[in-house]
Amino acid sequence: DYAGPVLFVGEAAAQMVAQTLTDTVRLPRKPVAPPGGNVPEARVIDSVWASRVGSKVVPEWMSLIDDPLQAQAGKQELVGHYEVDDEGVPAQRVSLVEKGVLKTFLFSREPVRKFANSNGHGRLPGGFGNATPVIGNLFVQTTGGISDTQLKARLLEKVKAAGLSYGMIVRKLDFPSTANFEELESLARQAQKSGFARTLNAPILAYKVYPDGREELVRGLRFREFSAKDLRDIAGAGDAPYVFNYVNNGSSFNLAGVGSDATTSSVICPSLLFDNVELAKAENEAGRPPIVPSPTLVAQ
């Protein structure tokens, strides 16, 4: 098991933000029962930021903006670009978090208490005949960013200060998730045993990084509890945003091939360093790596 500083580099940082904020930046409306009646339990996932409007949710040097009107970031196309959402509402630029403070959420035409208007993000079918708000182009903007090399050095400083023998670098997550049913069951059991509800998809490329800078690939790791609340523990950011384009079915795990409806989203995010993230060994032992290389790779 590991508990300590973790550096999410490039793609992994964008994947982590995409998964963490999928159901955090939208505010679903809960069904209301008529007098004396009951409404069947609705599986509506509340945002962990639901009661945090006007409060600090990320460091003050960070802002979150969803702007589906932008077609490119630099020279790279953004698949989250659109001009009108599925309900016919023109797309809008939405400043979700300004200098660390939560200002609003993404909305469809479905009215929610204290928020009566759509901001053009109803892009997937939702419950009760309403559209579900979905990320378009989510920009993670930071000030004072440094290079990934400097972030790695800062990670090692934190490792030394904490008295640890190594730190962790994550370069890629399994997002959108390709987990099978058995893996999901295993993840659910681990969550139930530990008493947490939210976590991240498994890391595909995770490395121990030692004080001399040497990196060692680690297999069979799983994140413990992780949600948007942990974004307050970001200790540093890179200076080179990574563009992550993906197919979005509106769920936090974003299981590949699941669901009859999907849309496209983009997250533009630099590398992110966290003060403390917990990881643990997977409940099931990972499969053995290949004994011989792929014939296709050998032929190349």
Characteristics of this structure?
seven-stranded mixed β-sheet; globular; single chain; 300 residues; alpha+beta; 17 strands
* Portion in beta strands: 25-35%
Order of helices and strands: EHEEEEEEEEHEHEEEEEEEH
Structural class of the helix and strand makeup? alpha+beta
Q: How many individual helices?
A: 4
**How large, in whole angstroms, is the Cα Rg?**
20 Å
Kindly report how far apart the N and C termini lie: 39 Å
Q: Give the biggest sheet.
A: 7 strands, mixed
Shape type: globular
> Would you report the number of β strands?
17
Low-confidence stretches: none
Mean pLDDT: 84
Estimated helix fraction: 10-25%
Helices and strands, with pairings:
Layout: E1 2-8, H1 11-21, E2 62-66, E3 72-73, E4 76-77, E5 94-98, E6 101-102, E7 122-125, E8 131-133, E9 137-142, H2 148-161, E10 167-173, H3 181-194, E11 203-209, E12 215-218, E13 221-223, E14 234-237, E15 242-248, E16 263-269, E17 272-281, H4 295-299
Parallel strand pairs: 1-10, 9-16
Antiparallel strand pairs: 1-17, 2-5, 2-9, 3-4, 5-6, 7-8, 10-11, 11-12, 13-17, 14-17, 15-16
